[in-house]
Amino acid sequence: MNCFNCKATLTDSDFCTECGVDVAVYKKILRLSNHYYNVGLEKATVRDLSGAVTSLKKSLKYNKENIQARNLLGLVYNEMGETVKALGEWVISKSMQSQHNLADDYLKAVQSNQGRLDAVNQTIKKYNQALLYCQQESEDLAIIQLKKVLSLNPKLIQGHQLIALLYMKQGEWEKARKALNTAIKIDTNNTTTLRYLREVKEQMHKGASVVKKKSDKVSYVNGNEVIIQPTGLKDFSGISIVVNIGIGILIGLCVAWFLIVPSIKQSSNSDATKALVKANEQIASKNANISSLKAKVEEAKQEAEASLKKAQDSEAVVTSYEQFVTALNAYMGKDDNAAYQALTAVNPDQLSEACKGIYETFKSELNEKLVGSLYTEGKSAYYRRDYSLAAAKLEQVIAIDEKYSSGDAIFHLAEAYRKLEDKEKAIATYQKVIELMPGTAEASTAQDYISQLQVNENQQTDGAQNGSPDNGMNQPTTE
Amino acid sequence: MIDFEEELKKFHPSLEVEEAEEIIYSQDLTDMTDILVQLMKETKHTQQ
User: Which helix (H) or strand (E) holds A220?
Assistant: First the structure.
C-alpha cells in the first residue's frame, strides 16, 4: 500500500512517514475496495455473475487501481458474453499495470484468435439487429436473429433474456422458461432472469396443464414434451375422413384426367403414327420386293418358254431326222408307202443344208417312183371299176403332184368321184381340172360334167319336192 | 405482470469491437481516492 500523495510505502500509522499526509481515510477506502473485491470474487465463484459485477464495480469505484478487481470484472464480463466490455477492462488494467498483469494474458488469448474476435463482433451486430427488430415489433425476425446469436455465443445473458421476453410476449411460456433456465445456469442470481422466470412460472400455473395462447394455437404439456395444436382443428371423426378421402379421390381423378390422360393419348397417337409409318415403309419395301420378284418370275417364265421352245425345236429336229432316217430305211426296204409316210413327217427346215439337199433329192425320187406306182394302180383300179380304190390311189397321186401325167390323174380322180356319185367331191375336182388345165378338152369335159351334175342335183331337189324321184346320173358323152 | 415495452427499454445495444477504444477513453475512472485527494487539496487551499 502506497501513499496517494508521495507514493511512499505506508506503515500501520495513519500518517505517511514520508510526507506526513493523513492516510486514515485513504486506508479505509482501500480496505472497502478490497472488501468489495472479495465479495465480488465470492459471487463469481458461485456464478452470481451479475452480483459479482456490482461488487467489483463498487470495488473499482473506491480504488480504480485495484488491478485484481478490474481483471476479475473483465473475466466476469467475458463469462457473461460481454467480450467487448471485458476487453475494455483488461486494456485499462494493462495501462495501469503493464508488468505482471493477468490482463495481459487474457488480452493475448482473445487477440491471438482473430476468427473468434470476428465471430464475437458478428454476434454483437446480430444481437443489435435483433434488438432493432424488437423495437420495430418484428418479434418473429428478432427471435430468428437471436437464435443465431445464441448459437454463436451461448453465454450471452442478455440474448437469453431478450428471447425469453419475446416468447413471453407471444405466450410461449415453455420456451421462455427454457431460455431463462439456460440463462440462470450462466448467471444464477441475475435479478432480471429471476423476475422473468417468476412471471413465467406464474403464467404456467395460471393456465394449469393447458394454456390457451393469444394466437390460434394450443400448447399441451405432456411430461417434458410440449405439444402444439391449432385451435381451429376439430375432430369430425368418420365424416371428415370420408369427405377428405372423397376430395382426395376427386383431385386425383382431375389430375389423371387433365395431366396423365392427355399425355397417354399423345403417346399412343405418336406410337400409332410411328407404327403406321413403319407399316407403310414395310408395305413399300414389300411392294418393291414383289415387283422385283414378278420381274424375276417373268424373266424365268420367258427363259422357261425359250428353253421349252428350244427343247421342242430340238425334239422336232430329232423327230425330223428320225423320220428322215425311217423314210430312208423304208425306201431301202422297198416299202415306198412307208417311206413316203415317214418323209411327209420330216420338216425340211429343221434339217441341215446337206441333209436338206439329200431330202429334196430323195423326196423327188420317191415321189416320182411312188406317184408312178400309185397312178398305175389307180388307173388299173379305175378300169376295173373299183372306183373307191382308184379314188384312194389317185388322191395320193394328186397330193404329191396335182398335174401328174398332164392332169390325167386329177381328171380320173374326178371321174372316180362321179362314178362313186360323190357329187361334191366330183364337182370340186372338176373345178380343179378347169383351173389347172384351162382351154383343154379335159377342162371342157369337166365343165360339162359339172353342169350335168348341177342339173341333176336340181332335178333331184325338184323331184323330191314334186314326188317324182330321179336318182340316175347321165353318162358323159365322151369317155 | 411484466410490461414488454418497459422491459425492452432496459435492453441496450452491445458495444461492438470497433467501439471499444472509444468506450475505454470515455469511461469515467474517477474513484474515491481521486475525490479524497481533491478534497484534501481544496482543504489545503482554504487553510492557506
Answer: strand A217-222
Note whether residue A137 is domain-resident.
Answer: yes
Q: How many domains does chain A have?
A: 3
Q: A405 and A389 share a domain? A: yes
**CA atoms of A345 and A316, how far apart (whole Å):** 10
Give me the interface pTM, i.e. the ipTM: 0.86
Kindly list the residues from chain B whose CB atom is less than 8 angstroms away from the CB atom of residue A158: 11, 14
Residue A336 covered by a domain: no
* Contact between chains at B31 and A63 (C-beta distance less than 8 A): yes
Cβ neighbours around A213 below 10 Å, total = 15
A216-243 burial: b if 16+ Cβ within 10 Å, else e: ebebebeeeeeeeeeeeeeeeeeeeeee
- A459 shares a domain with A416: yes
Q: Spell out the per-residue pLDDT of chain A, length 479, in tens.
A: 888 888 888 888 888 888 888 888 888 899 999 999 999 999 999 999 999 999 999 999 999 989 999 999 999 998 888 888 888 899 999 999 988 999 999 988 888 888 888 888 888 999 999 999 998 888 899 999 999 999 988 888 889 999 999 999 888 999 999 999 999 999 998 899 999 999 999 988 887 555 444 555 666 666 666 666 665 555 556 788 889 899 999 999 998 888 888 888 888 888 888 999 999 999 999 999 999 999 999 999 999 999 888 888 888 888 888 888 888 888 888 887 788 888 888 888 888 888 888 888 888 888 888 888 888 999 999 999 999 999 998 998 888 888 888 888 999 999 999 999 888 899 999 999 999 888 888 889 999 989 988 887 777 766 655 544 444 444 443 43
Question: Could you tell me if A130 and A195 lie in one domain?
Answer: yes
Q: Find the CATH number of the domain harbouring A173.
A: 1.25.40.10
Residue A43: inside a domain, yes or no?
Answer: yes
Contact between A158 and B11 using a beta-carbon 8 Å cutoff: yes
What is the interface size between A and B, counted as CB pairs within 8 Å? 90
A5, A30, A57, A61, best to mutate vs chain B, most B CBs in 10 Å: A61
Residues of A in contact with B14 (CB under 8 A): 82, 84, 124, 127-128, 158
Contact A168 B2 (CB under 8 A): yes
Q: Cell numbers for A186, please give them.
A: 450462466
